[in-house]
Amino acid sequence: MAKLPNEKLTALDNRFVSVEEQMAASPNPEEYVALAKEHSDLSPIVEKIREFRQVESDLAGAKELLNSEDKEMAEMAYQEVSELGEKIEKLTHEIRLVLLPKDAADNRSVILELRAGTGGDEAALFVGDLFRMYSRYAELNRWKVSVLTQNEGDMGGFKEATLNISGSGVYSKFKFESGVHRVQRVPDTETQGRIHTSAATVAVLPEVEDIDIEIKTEDIRIDTMRASGAGGQHVNTTDSAVRITHIPSGIVVVASEKSQHQNRATVMKVLRARLYEAEREKRDTERADTRRDQVGSGDRSGRIRTYNFPQGRVTDHRINLTLYKLDKVLEGEALDEIISSLITENQAAQLAAMDEE
What we know:
Helix content: 40-55%
Low-confidence stretches: 229-238, 287-300
CATH topology of the largest domain: Alpha-Beta Plaits
Number of helices: 9
């Protein structure tokens, strides 16, 4: 069983006590808010630390009774030692998980970009399936879903769509969804019953504020243009579409909804998210040696999951997990089974890396 860093645990407990003392001393409102947040962050781990130390004490006491001349007492102590030993193992694992380095973006909302890949109309239909799956999953978690942009496919679905999913801890759940999603099914237009393979790409970007990413006016070029429409009365006859180019990075973002004002806000929101993610990817690349065994969360070029309709199965290739619950996954109901498994696998990889250090 892995050992816990006792000095660090003691330091955390001492800091928790210090924070409580400072809060009781009636600091100014701004300081109190900062202390209250730190207290809230420390409380779960300190609670576990104190429980662990109490169990350790109880275990030591029970071990002293193992050699008791009273056989009944010794038998009771033996049973207690066994139970407390299991509790120690459980608490050790829980504390090690809490001590893992935190992803600063985990509590953020996300911008979700979905794009049709190979497969033409069928790929666009698949993007529509993913759009509904993620929207439903967000609703089940009581997160807010806003559609930022959408470009409908000729036969339905979307050639591309951008969603904003807002709530606490959204990125921590969605970050492993980035990558290539593949679908295998018989299209409605297929007369000979052949299975076709299509793909869509998913990019998950943590949402950021103006203060997180500084975008200089001289670094961007904003163009307005006429938005494309479906024809007839739906054709947009005003220059409402907005394209923004970030000159230093070459990133281009386009929004073509009806309101030019809303489009400007959308492209800036997406641009900030892309620039922030680019910085995160650069940082992660620099730490690649320590992350190579972890579950990939940002490689959008790799095939991560296959949705096979004829067999009713979904397979996540990163952790070799297969669920025969395709309908429930696409309804968002069983998606958390996959996401939870990915989180657990990533935590295990982080713990292994920690033990090697």
